[in-house]
């Protein structure tokens, strides 16, 4: 039984291309810029060992984190607590999970955890050439109970990974809050295992890399995202109005600011548009952790005059989903400007 989701069928349906059942590029294809021409760069690199040293080193490290969050919205960290052994185990276990028959993937975790493509896509430019398991943190520990789909090994690996990155996310969020002079306990109180997520991604090789994104351009609707992207590149982000490709660093985790932190910081920290491009030859795996609050959590700018209206996370998510359904894309924070 095939393990791949029906991405080829979705592509043909949305593009209208049915040339003997084969893919071909023609003048009606999506008008994407040539992603292969995007310059590659190294993100700001921060050594978290400095946080364990003297006061001068700690403050310098915190300043680096805040500065990167303001100027880039993205940075990478080393000495983060995830060993190379655990990283490799995470990749191998993901590969095994994604190689299962498609119908088994829907049964792997709780209902709705397995996703592929873009369910709301109405045209080719909205299709994401990827599949994912999107799992709430509090479901990970018991995810292997009572079934024999190989979840126990995967679950224990996910638990080790999630325990470390969730602690790291809180530490980074508290540092960023502290640099604003804001309440650093906010995240401990509002971002709970039931509201934070681990997302395992697979981007299959794609026969039409110039036409389809692995993940279409977007910003993250959370506070912080922590990404383990393994060896294969594909992540691109906007810097100074231009798309740039992130060079993979096998020793580092990639951190990016989400919409909620931009609003909470009153635009001090930046939630930056990013995307994943497809690859014709190789598939790509990554694992992301999302630091999210409960739906009832109120997001309010830390100082006045506020750039954004006060809103709950529920209101934000509902507005995003409404826009995606109606327009085919997310508008996000501009909807909540004062």
Question: How is the secondary structure organized here?
Answer:
Blueprint: H1 7-15, E1 40-41, E2 45-47, H2 55-71, E3 74-78, H3 84-98, H4 102-105, E4 114-116, E5 131-136, H5 137-140, H6 151-180, H7 186-190, E6 197-203, E7 213-218, E8 224-228, E9 235-239, E10 242-246, E11 253-257, H8 259-264, E12 274-277, E13 284-291, E14 298-299, E15 311-312, H9 313-327
Parallel strand pairs: 1-10, 2-3
Antiparallel strand pairs: 3-11, 4-5, 5-6, 6-13, 7-12, 8-11, 8-13, 9-10, 9-12, 14-15
Helix pairs in contact: 2-6, 3-6
Task: Describe this structure as you would to a colleague.
Belongs to the iron/ascorbate-dependent oxidoreductase family. GA2OX subfamily. It catalyses: gibberellin A1 + 2-oxoglutarate + O2 = gibberellin A8 + succinate + CO2. Keywords: Dioxygenase, Iron, Metal-binding, Oxidoreductase. InterPro entries: DIOX_N, IPNS-like_FE2OG_OXY, IPNS-like_sf, Iron_ascorbate_oxido_reductase, Oxoglu/Fe-dep_dioxygenase_dom. Residues 194-293 form the Fe2OG dioxygenase domain. By secondary structure, the protein is α+β, with helices and mostly antiparallel strands. The chain has a single domain (7-305), classed as Sandwich (Jelly Rolls), CATH 2.60.120.330. Helix content is 31%, strand content 20%. The chain is built from nine helices and 15 strands. The strands form three sheets. An eight-stranded mixed sheet has the order 2-3-11-8-13-6-5-4. Strands 1-10-9-12-7 form a five-stranded mixed sheet, with no helix packed on it. Strands 14-15 form a two-stranded antiparallel sheet. Strand 2 (45-47), helix 2 (55-71) and strand 3 form a beta-alpha-beta unit. The radius of gyration is 20 Å and the shape is globular. Mean pLDDT is 89; it is low at 23-31 and 144-150.
């Amino acid at each position: 039984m095939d393990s791949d989701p029906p991405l080829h069928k979705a592509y043909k349906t949305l593009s209208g291309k049915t040339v003997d059942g084969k893919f071909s590029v023609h003048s009606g294809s999506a008008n994407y810029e040539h992603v292969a021409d995007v310059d590659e760069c190294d993100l700001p690199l921060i050594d978290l060992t400095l946080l364990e040293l003297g006061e001068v080193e700690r403050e310098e490290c915190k300043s680096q984190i805040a500065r990167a969050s303001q100027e880039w919205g993205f940075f990478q960290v080393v000495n983060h607590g995830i060993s190379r052994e655990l990283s490799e185990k995470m990749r191998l276990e993901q590969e095994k999970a994604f190689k299962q028959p498609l119908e088994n993937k829907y049964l792997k975790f709780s209902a709705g955890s397995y996703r592929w493509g873009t369910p709301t896509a109405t045209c080719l430019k909205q299709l994401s050439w990827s599949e994912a398991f999107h799992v709430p943190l509090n479901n990970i520990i018991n995810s292997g109970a009572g079934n024999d789909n190989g979840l126990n090994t995967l679950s224990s690996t996910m638990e080790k990974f999630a325990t470390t990155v969730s602690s790291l996310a809180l530490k980074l969020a508290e540092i960023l809050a502290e640099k604003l002079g804001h309440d650093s306990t906010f995240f401990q109180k509002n971002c709970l295992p039931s509201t934070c997520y681990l997302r395992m991604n697979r981007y299959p090789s794609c026969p039409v890399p110039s036409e389809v994104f692995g993940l279409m351009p977007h910003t993250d609707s959370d506070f912080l995202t922590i990404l383990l992207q393994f060896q294969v590149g594909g992540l691109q982000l906007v810097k100074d109005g231009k798309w740039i490709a992130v060079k993979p660093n096998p020793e580092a985790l990639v951190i990016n600011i989400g919409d909620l932190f931009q609003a909470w910081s009153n635009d001090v920290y930046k939630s930056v548009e990013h995307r994943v491009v497809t690859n014709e030859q190789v598939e790509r795996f990554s694992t992301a952790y999302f630091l999210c609050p409960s739906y009832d959590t109120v997001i309010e700018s830390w100082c006045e005059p506020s750039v954004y209206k006060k809103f709950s996370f529920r209101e934000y998510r509902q507005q995003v989903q409404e826009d995606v359904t109606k327009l085919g894309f997310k508008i996000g924070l501009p909807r909540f400007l004062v």
